[in-house]
Amino acid sequence: MDPHGRIDVKWDVMSWTPDGYVAVVTMTNMQTYRHIESPGWTLGWRWAKKEVIWSVLGAQASDQGDCSTFKQNLPHSCKKNPSIIDLLPNAPFNQQFSQCCKGGVLASQGQDPGAAVSSFQISVGRSGTSKKTISLPQDFYLLGSGPGYTCTAAAVVSPSAFYLGDGRRRSQALMTWSLTCSYSQTIVSKNPSCCVSMSSFYSTQITPCPSCSCGCQQGQANCVKKEDNKISSVVEKSKAERKMVQCTEHMCPIKVHWHVKNNYKTHWRVKLTVTNFRYRTNYTKWTLAAHHPSLRSLANVSSFLYKPLMVYGASNDTGMFYGIDGVNAVLLEAGSNGNVQSEILLQKDNNSSFSLEHGWPFPWRIYFNGDECAMPSPDTYPSLPSSARFSALTGFGSIKGGLQILVFIILVGIF
């Protein structure tokens, strides 16, 4: 549902130095609903020659490396394959750079475009000092608070243009190269990281998340039972406490529940609940993307913010839900407060096509933080009881259903 989702990385050489150049590196998260959360991004590469990093503003190399060949004025990093991380928000002012110092957190483009960009300035030495002698870094990689991203090779592109001062003077970079990094969920894990359960007002049946949706191998060794009265101590003693989840049948850290709550004459209502089963982990700036044909006629959303996703031209049957800052933008760790809820009201734009049968009210796909959730099998969806078919339709304003039951009563009276 995000066919153009990627992270763009651009290097703009702004000036030449006696032994290298000064460049501005900019990362832009073009992904609609996938963000990079704490502990943030890490950008790495391999130098083509014997380059060193003299200094960095707005970021820092995680390892200085062996700089013993330098007698004085030690470089910031002498690593052949340096890795750069963002500075924290409270970094000293003289170390900051524009759009830096967010702890590596990058918002998604659909949620907050202004916070979807991060940049830093880097001074490179022992490299070429012109377009003809410079060599591009190789083997780029990006960690977005974990693995999953694959980056292309850097390629020289048209120099970036800039407008300075009053906006009447145009300048450009001396040289620019760029690359893109794309995410693959299967690189991270062969199992999903979330699942979907369903229920409806017209059925006592609840469709749970599929068993072992997120994998059950060695599950009991990596989960905490809810009835354990010493959950905190159990988690604290765990060697992988950030990965500890509550023991469930599905073994997923996130469960999304879709409940068809009401059916009115012109509208129908859904209650949406997202539950966190992971201990010691909060989800900040979470996003939930859904694919359902009725989202094109969504009338109201309570407690959440909503943005339609125009994935394929004019079709807007997909949308993104996310929390309100200061209210529920953070999905807390497992426990009594580890969930967020909303109710959405959808309009029946065409009563003749609306139906409660065959699983129509339920979503086709759900994504949490960009990862696709495991869906139940369609044959397990809450079914409409045969005795309630007419009442479920006519009782809430369906003209077609009313005519059907009228004919049924007449026939009963005749016979």
UniProtKB/TrEMBL annotation:
**Positions of the COBRA C-terminal domain:** 193-382
> Does the keyword field hold Transcription?
no
TM spans (from-to)? 390-414
Q: Which GO terms describe its biological process?
A: cellulose microfibril organization; plant-type cell wall cellulose biosynthetic process
As for subcellular location, the record says: Cell membrane
User: Membrane topology type, per the record?
Assistant: Lipid-anchor; GPI-anchor
Under InterPro entries, the record lists: COB_C, COBRA_pln
Keyword presence, Transcription regulation: no
Q: Name one Pfam family in it.
A: COB_C
Specify the signal sequence span: none
Q: What does the UniProt keyword field contain?
A: Glycoprotein, GPI-anchor, Lipoprotein, Membrane, Signal, Transmembrane, Transmembrane helix
Q: State any GO CC term.
A: side of membrane
Q: PANTHER family given for it?
A: COBRA-LIKE PROTEIN, PROTEIN COBRA
Similarity remark: Belongs to the COBRA family.
Protein name per Swiss-Prot or TrEMBL: COBRA-like protein
Which species is the source of this protein?
Linum trigynum
